[in-house]
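Can anyone check this?
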Amino acid sequence: MIINKRRGALPLHFHLKAAALAGVVAFGALGAALSGCSALTAANAEDSAQAAAAPLTAVEALTVERGEIKKEIVYAGKLAPNATLSVVSKLSGKITDVYADVGDRVRAGDILLKLDEQDIQSQLDQIDAQIHQADQGVVTAENALNSVTGGQYQAQVLQQETSLENYDKQLENAQIALDNAALAIANAGRTLENAQRDYDNAKSLYESGAVAENDLTKAEFAKNQAQAAYEQAQNALAQAQVGYDQLVFAKDKAAESLALTRGRIVSDSTRQASLAVEQAKASRDVLYVQRETITKNLSETQLESPISGVVNICNARAGEFVSPQAPAFVLVDLDRVNVEVSVSELLINKIRTGDQIDVIIHALGGAAYKGEIVTISPSADQTSLFPVKIAIDNPDGILRSGMFAEVRFIKEHSEGAVVLPRGCVLSNSAGDYVYVVRDGLAYKAPVTTGVDNGKEVEITEGLTFGEQVVVKGGTNLSDGEAVNVVAGPDAAASGVGA
């Protein structure tokens, strides 16, 4: 064996040990490398497991079905009665009874108030007495005609003389009635003058601010009462004068008949008697006409409701006077109420009379009523809008005049279409889109929209019936992302399939 003894050379056993040591180190390094690789593989496997175990994005979805969508234009207005009618008494007089007040529902023909009928009843009694006398006058004239040449001449003369005496007594009574009527009209005239003067004074004081408006109103009411009393006195005087004149006429004719009978002018007497019969009948007919007028006035002491409705204003009080110059009642017909709104030119050609319109009354908790368009103005008003009147049936009387009404006109309408909640339609620079769910994955589907009412939107292209569309949770989705569909809104809640 040759041993290299060069300086710095290491013995052989040292190299062997070094080689062995290097092998150990290399093996250790390989082991460490293998150990590190194993650890990395385990870490990747753990990450994959964790990734596989991560929860999917939860979304709500609905199934596309056929639906209906409306786009409405809303206008506001106030409810008004179908008709308003002032009820006026045809007579002036004192009210004795009032049978209706504000808020009462009345029917056509119901009695609203009653006037004092004593004066008119007295006129009727008086005219009946005059008619009775006129009937007697006719009988007398007919008897005179029948017996102008008979053998009962003396009896006829006696009868005519008695009739003439009766006319004298009746004329005395008629003159007393005439005098009383003249006195009554004089008193009424003085009362009217005083009332007019008081009214004029009150008016001057009111205009100067010295008295209140209530004092002027009282003075005016007193003047109107005095005027009514004066007119009644004038009517009574006219009736008394008519009665007196008729009695004078009847007496004159009776005197003529008596003279003819006494003169025994047979031919002339017959002619005169026939004329007397005609005149007696004519006078009686005038009285019957007057009686009809008085009877009509008597019936009009009861003021009847001309329509069925509700009393809106009552100006009648028992003990007060009423006249044709002022309405005693104001009635409103609320069986049907109206609301008038003014619509724009964009809507006017899309509506027709007879169309059914939804009307919302917020005062009744947002209750919805069906109204019917009854009138559409053919021209715009000063605001360039077109007045439209809608009528609403009100059989239960809940709708009141003055309530605010929200009228909903349909501008666009689509049926049998794809309708989605507005919030599930998303947009980007490329246009509108939705997410549809297929096999647990959410895919972006471009869509074309139609009618849009702010809550719902019509999809005209891009979807078919039966597809599942994400309606909630789609804002942050990615195309093809796995999702977990949780309980979504039903068709009624989403508006689909309505």
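Reply from J.R.: I decoded it. The mean pLDDT is 81.
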